[in-house]
């Protein structure tokens, strides 16, 4: 009898009942908020059907790409036309803080800033990028990779990476968007260095390269 009475008193303790009721109330409110938020997100997705931007290297010209043998200084002159398309039919995009970097053998050797630009729905913008100058390559592995590519097929594996901040325009509202990252792996032939050779002589035709886009 004593033990049963103690258990009964413990279960019916007013403080415990109050705590259980408060906890149940909090869980109910949180669950309701999550359900409402999920419904709103689903409704907005179905309404606007957001899509990732699409990026393509439309053209590229590698006028100079040479490495000094003793100091491993990479001299480069590279121009790229990056075509960016906004496939959304209800969302316009304002790109800000647009930065492009060129990589070789995993090392960043050049950077180019591009002015902010605006894309309406379904619009395509060509972003011209120019890299020129010199930069040291670190480590003998990168220099060995350069020599191998120069000897084997006279073409070089260059990565163009672009990042930016987005502001999305939905109807009359502007809201912060995700920060896209664009990665464009290229295999580029160095332009014929002979002054007497016509422009494009002996150079393989460049085919547009699709880039990888993620957030």
Automatic annotation (TrEMBL):
Keywords for the protein's UniProt record, in alphabetical order: Membrane, Transmembrane, Transmembrane helix
Domain of life per record: Eukaryota
Sequence ranges assigned to domain Late embryogenesis abundant protein LEA-2 subgroup in this UniProt record: 82-171
InterPro entries membership: LEA_2, NDR1-like
Record Pfam families: LEA_2
Protein localization: Membrane
Alphabetical GO biological process terms: defense response to other organism
Membrane topology: Single-pass membrane protein
Keyword match Disulfide bond: no
Residues spanning the membrane: 27-48
Keyword Ligase: no
Annotated GO CC locations: plasma membrane; plasmodesma
Name of this protein: Late embryogenesis abundant protein LEA-2 subgroup domain-containing protein
Higher taxonomy: Eukaryota, Viridiplantae, Streptophyta, Embryophyta, Tracheophyta
């Amino acid at each position: 009898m004593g033990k049963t009475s103690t258990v009964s008193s413990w279960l019916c303790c007013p403080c415990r009942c109050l705590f259980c009721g408060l906890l149940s109330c909090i869980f109910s409110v949180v669950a309701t908020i999550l359900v409402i938020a999920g419904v709103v997100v689903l409704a907005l997705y179905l309404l606007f059907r957001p899509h990732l931007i699409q990026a393509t290297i439309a053209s590229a010209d590698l006028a100079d790409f040479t490495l000094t043998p003793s100091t491993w200084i990479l001299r480069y002159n590279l121009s790229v036309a990056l075509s960016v398309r906004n496939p959304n039919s209800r969302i316009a995009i304002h790109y800000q803080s647009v930065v492009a970097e060129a990589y070789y053998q995993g090392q960043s050797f050049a950077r180019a800033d591009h002015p902010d630009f605006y894309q309406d729905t379904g619009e395509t913008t060509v972003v011209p990028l120019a890299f020129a100058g010199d930069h040291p390559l670190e480590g003998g592995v990168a220099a060995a990779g350069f020599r191998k590519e120069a000897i084997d097929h006279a073409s070089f594996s260059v990565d163009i990476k672009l990042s930016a901040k987005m502001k999305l325009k939905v109807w009359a509202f502007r809201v912060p968007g995700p920060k896209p990252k664009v990665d464009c792996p290229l295999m580029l032939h160095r332009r014929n260095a002979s002054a007497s050779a016509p422009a494009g002589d002996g150079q393989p035709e460049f085919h547009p390269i699709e880039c990888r886009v993620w957030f």
